[in-house]
């Protein structure tokens, strides 16, 4: 597969999660520029499709994992009679590997040997080039390069409309829109990856005292609602609670209006990157060089590396890339003082 190869029908397979599909968007849009006449079909998860619906030039086929076996049957039926020039199989999870079986393509490109897991190798016939210590986004760049896309700087054109922005602006209110907005997106998919509510509250107080309006965002789950309530209870300043009040596109618009975002290892951190909003990422369990906010990795506050060394006796470059560390209370090692110092640094660097 070279740059001179012509593609008319390309299939992307990346089902989840929110952060990962955000990374994949930049690769897909680079592919569109390099192959402007190719039809792009993206097999994607149901929730993720809500965020990316109406992405220009992309046909989405939703794979709803909750349907079980029926989801695979539906995928086969959808693609009956079609034959893609190439499938870019961007996910190693077994669920995605089984989905790849249902997608007819001459060439099925997957990850290199080092990143192949859960029988991934059985469902592909080409591999992307190996990459040393690559960020997830750079892995997706590898798929673009595999079909002839030249080197590119990641960029995003996210599918949000004036209506989505108007709804977000209405929720934020004119007073906040007139000034700087500090968004706290406090909840990760796993509770152990969340920072302590009283420490989020301390940053809310600090930001308010620096002249920011403070907003908390999140989904409608009981965990996210409870965490937001705890943060507000510990805070001594006005905080706008938008948890459970935004659809994903509206949340993206809130993040776009923000001057700065504070978040742990969670999808909204990567959503903020796509709209150019700086992110302070809080990391303990996974290597931020692999999964941190891509354009703002210098703004991460982390205790990952010290815990990795303590638990394994080795550094990240001596272990399989992406090795995670375990522990229910690791995030408590991140001190308020470290985050406020980073807050000040970001304000200086970004001239906020």
TrEMBL record:
Keywords per UniProt: Glycosyltransferase, Transferase
Which GO annotations describe the biological process of this protein? Answer: lipopolysaccharide core region biosynthetic process
Q: Known SUPFAM superfamilies for this protein?
A: UDP-Glycosyltransferase/glycogen phosphorylase (SSF53756)
Q: Does the keyword Cell membrane apply?
A: no
* Protein name per its UniProtKB record: Glycosyltransferase family 9 protein
KW Coiled coil (keyword) present: no
Tell me the GO molecular function terms: ADP-heptose-lipopolysaccharide heptosyltransferase activity
Q: Which organism is it from?
A: Pseudoalteromonas lipolytica
Instruction: One GO cellular component term, please give it.
Output: cytosol
Q: Which Pfam family, any one, appears in the UniProt record?
A: Glyco_transf_9
